[in-house]
What we know:
This is DUF306 domain-containing protein. Keywords: Signal. Residues 1-50 form the signal peptide. The protein is built from two helices and eleven strands, in the order ββαβαββββββββ. The longest helix is centred in the first third of the chain and has 28 residues, at 26-53. A hairpin with a 2-residue loop joins strand 7 (111-116) and strand 8 (119-125). The chain is 19% helix and 49% strand. It is globular.
Amino acid sequence: MVEGSSHRHRAGWSEAVRVGRRGGDHRSMARPRARLLVSLMALAMHSAHAADEGFSGAWSIDLRTPAQRAQRAGCGEASFVLEQTGRRITGAHTMATAGCGRINEGGEGSVHGEVDGDHALLFVTSGRTGTVVKGRATLKGGGLDWETSEEVRAGAPMGDSPLILGKGFLARVRK
């Protein structure tokens, strides 16, 4: 394929002719390659930004059963809002049973701990009973895998649930 265009130079008119290999136009491949390059750069920047976020952000898990979801029951959620600065983590947590029958609003400063790579050792204090638990959070597949390992300090009144998530996979909440 031969593509031609005329354009004027100081010395007069000249004919610019471009012949592509195998009859193809080199420009026809430039746009898809440029789009691919831009897409790859955007993906790399997004991945780097996600890695920089670490544990910082809001994390949530829906604790309702499928039947409760179908009935659109309120509450039934546990969440962490965390801020990572270097190896240190601080934040808040909440948990509420489906139907909002029992709520632990945890509050600001109810979570603190330390990061080691993709893992964090966290101490969570119940705003409901004062119970303190120790657990492990792991960044995994874009989410936060949480598991309570032990109760560090019992709360009051004895026997009342502190309403701190025992185990679950929380999704990052995007705004």
